[in-house]
């Protein structure tokens, strides 16, 4: 029986990909590097990863001669500034939260994002009251696709992994959820590079498409 729904955040709850790209482009200009010098195959694989791990990819593939931590700090400063002014929720977010809350399901966020950013999102859109548990990239030693993020979320929710449904948009996030033993609903995002959702139990086009019937399909 499903007891909890666990939300990824970036490009699942909020439309953030464009802001990540904008902040990366601005950060890379300092080093005379171009994001689009990376092949699309590498860029699409960055979706769902922790920012520090993304910066390691840039450092290695673009030959940037500074520590990944410095790139992380510079990118994060730019991104958080953009988030405060431009970030928007994904369609159907509040409706899905209201549906699950009304039906007494526990709710959690399990994101690769840092806690500061998660708190900005919860405050900006008045969402804090919905969630029983929050797991950030700061809470794990291994980012997605490693299952640790969702394992920690289930532990904090005091449930077994098969009692949780994870909502994800990214291939790495889906792999993390399935590796942890959770059910997974993939929510397609038309604004990001294409993701392989074949490992998900169910795939939908938006949060509006998720209903209790969707959860019933997984419960069978």
TrEMBL record:
<dbReference type="InterPro" id="IPR006439">
    <property type="entry name" value="HAD-SF_hydro_IA"/>
</dbReference>
<dbReference type="InterPro" id="IPR023198">
    <property type="entry name" value="PGP-like_dom2"/>
</dbReference>
<dbReference type="Pfam" id="PF13419">
    <property type="entry name" value="HAD_2"/>
</dbReference>
<dbReference type="InterPro" id="IPR036412">
    <property type="entry name" value="HAD-like_sf"/>
</dbReference>
<dbReference type="GO" id="GO:0050308">
    <property type="term" value="F:sugar-phosphatase activity"/>
</dbReference>
<dbReference type="InterPro" id="IPR041492">
    <property type="entry name" value="HAD_2"/>
</dbReference>
<dbReference type="InterPro" id="IPR023214">
    <property type="entry name" value="HAD_sf"/>
</dbReference>
<dbReference type="InterPro" id="IPR051806">
    <property type="entry name" value="HAD-like_SPP"/>
</dbReference>
<protein>
    <recommendedName>
        <fullName>FCP1 homology domain-containing protein</fullName>
    </recommendedName>
</protein>
């Amino acid at each position: 029986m499903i007891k909890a729904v666990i939300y990824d955040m970036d490009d699942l709850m909020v439309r953030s990909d464009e802001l990540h790209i904008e902040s990366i482009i601005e950060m890379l200009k300092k080093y005379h590097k171009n994001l689009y010098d990376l092949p699309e195959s590498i860029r699409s694989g960055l979706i769902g990863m922790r920012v520090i791990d993304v910066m390691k990819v840039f450092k290695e593939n673009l030959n940037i001669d500074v520590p990944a931590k410095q790139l992380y700090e510079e990118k994060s400063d730019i991104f958080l500034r953009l988030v405060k002014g431009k970030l928007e929720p994904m369609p159907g977010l509040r409706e899905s939260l209201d549906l699950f809350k009304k039906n007494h399901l526990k709710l959690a966020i399990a994101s690769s994002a840092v806690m500061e950013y998660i708190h900005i999102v919860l405050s900006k859109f008045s969402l804090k009251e919905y969630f029983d548990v929050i797991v950030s990239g700061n809470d794990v030693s291994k980012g997605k696709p490693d299952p640790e993020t969702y394992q920690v979320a289930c532990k904090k929710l005091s449930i077994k992994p098969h009692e949780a449904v994870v909502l994800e948009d990214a291939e790495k996030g889906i792999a993390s959820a399935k590796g942890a033993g959770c059910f997974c609903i993939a929510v397609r995002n038309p604004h990001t590079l294409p993701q392989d959702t074949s490992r998900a139990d169910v795939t939908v086009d938006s949060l509006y498409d998720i209903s209790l019937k969707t959860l019933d399909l997984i419960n069978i």
